[in-house]
Specification:
Layout (H helix, E strand, L loop, with lengths): L10 E6 L11 E16 L7 H7 L4 E13 L5 H19 L6 E8 L6 H13 L5 H10 L8 E8 L4 E9 L12 E6 L5 H14 L4 E2 L9 E6 L10 H24 L7 E9 L2 H12 L2 H8 L5 H9 L10 E5 L2 E5 L2 E2 L4 H7 L4 E8 L5 E11 L3 H8 L4
Parallel strand pairs: 3-4, 7-9, 8-15, 10-14
Antiparallel strand pairs: 1-2, 2-3, 2-9, 5-6, 6-7, 10-15, 11-12, 11-14, 12-13
Helix pairs in contact: 1-2, 2-3, 5-6, 7-9
Length: 401
């Protein structure tokens, strides 16, 4: 993974302050492709969605997108017809600045739900935001910073790969720290590439990557109204991607970028003291392993045990047991930070003090394995979560007051 955070060819970005946030921090991000880009998107499955989700979802997949405009500090969700009009106005104004059609601009908003979007404030800020767009790594970081709400750091990723005919760069920015749950989390992400892809290729690649990254993270199990991941591919690098091998190279690069962004969201989870990786393996279907991993990740008892560096393995195995999957516990084993605590349905003697000491580190690893019986097989899933601390409760109990 490249840590220089360079943009792909013929992309420009900016992050500016228009005045939505009382803090005066940056709150308006713009991502521009200087040429038409194929685009795809994946959105929250919540039935209650923000107006920007409705607008952007109606415009992708597309072969002709020029820009994405994002505001933070206000989700423009549960705001009725006026909210929808405000989202459309944002895309129209950016299109006017670029000389393209409103349908070529996508929009996202993040922040407090149920508060009318300050249209005049955003309208005054858009010309400056578009004019400030540049192809530098500073402009890229500014855009990622302007997307933030309760995040403590900007989330960026870049990867460069070589196909049979060209070098391709994939770069992405994301925001998110809480109200995080699969399908999808409270997060926004923009992925850009100079690869030449069709809208159909963009859609397939993005869904593959999202299923293995953004849909495998959870902080608190609460699905948001605004979650959006967008992929733009503007073809500035050269040749169309026609071979399956080249498409798989780009698909892996997009997945790697999404994984970096997704795990950064967990590392920045509100109040978190631990970053938890959960591997569930030995099941018949990936979906089966996913259900179990998700239950473990979202168990308040598992999360609080990890907060206390407590290797309370019974909470983990019991969470697997209520996931709605018919398996035989006699074939189930659990390893925490490399130490086996439960093997083939029976407890194992282990050094609890030593294991607790290893759990004091930031990273904790849980490995749950099924070795036979019903629903056993060769499929696995990796899931990421955080612990649950008093600081998380404080932050979220005081969010609007």
């Amino acid at each position: 993974m490249d840590t220089s955070y360079l943009l792909p060819k013929q992309f420009r970005t900016s992050g500016t302050t228009c005045g939505i946030k009382d803090s005066g921090r940056a709150d308006l991000a713009v991502f521009i492709s200087d040429r038409s880009a194929a685009a795809a998107g994946v959105f929250t499955t919540n039935r209650v969605v923000g107006a920007p989700v409705e607008v952007s979802r109606s415009r992708v997949p597309s072969k002709n997108v020029r820009a994405i405009v994002i505001n933070s500090g206000n989700a423009n969700a549960c705001t009725g017809e006026k909210g929808h009009e405000a989202a459309l106005a944002m895309t129209s104004q950016v299109a006017g600045e670029l000389g393209c059609q409103p349908e070529q601009v996508l929009v996202c908003s993040t922040g407090i739900i149920g508060v009318p979007l300050p249209r005049d404030v955003i309208a005054a800020g858009i010309p400056n935001a578009v004019a400030a767009c540049e192809s530098t790594k500073d402009g890229f970081k500014d855009a990622a910073t302007a997307m933030m709400t309760t995040d403590t750091f900007a989330k960026l990723a870049t990867e460069q790969v070589t196909t049979a005919s060209e070098k391709v760069r994939v770069s992405g920015a994301a925001k998110g720290a809480a109200m995080i749950a699969p399908n999808m989390a409270t997060m926004l992400a923009v992925i850009m590439t100079d690869a030449t892809l069709t809208p159909e290729q963009c859609d397939a690649i993005l869904r593959f990557a999202t299923d293995r990254t953004f849909n495998c993270i959870s902080v608190d199990g609460h699905m948001s109204t605004s979650d959006t991941v967008l992929l733009l591919a503007n073809g500035a690098s050269g040749q169309p991607v026609t071979s399956k091998a080249d498409e798989e190279i780009i698909q892996q690069a997009v997945t790697n970028v999404c994984q970096k962004l997704a795990t950064d969201i967990i590392r920045d989870a509100e109040g978190a003291a631990h970053f938890v990786t959960i591997d569930v393996s030995g099941f018949d279907l990936r979906e089966t392993a996913f259900r179990i991993a998700k239950e473990i990740a979202e168990s308040a008892l598992v999360k609080t045990a990890i907060t206390g560096n407590d290797p309370n393995w019974g909470r983990i195995t019991s969470a697997a047991g209520y996931a709605g999957v018919e398996f035989d516990p006699a074939y189930l084993s659990l390893t925490i930070n490399g130490m086996v605590v439960y093997r083939s349905g029976s407890p194992v003697l282990f050094d609890e003090a030593l294991l607790s000491e290893t759990m004091q580190q930031k990273d904790v690893h849980l490995l749950l394995e099924l070795s036979g019986g019903p629903r056993s097989g060769s499929q696995s899933v990796r899931f990421w979560t955080s612990d649950l601390t008093q600081e998380y409760v404080r932050l979220n109990s005081e969010y609007t007051t």
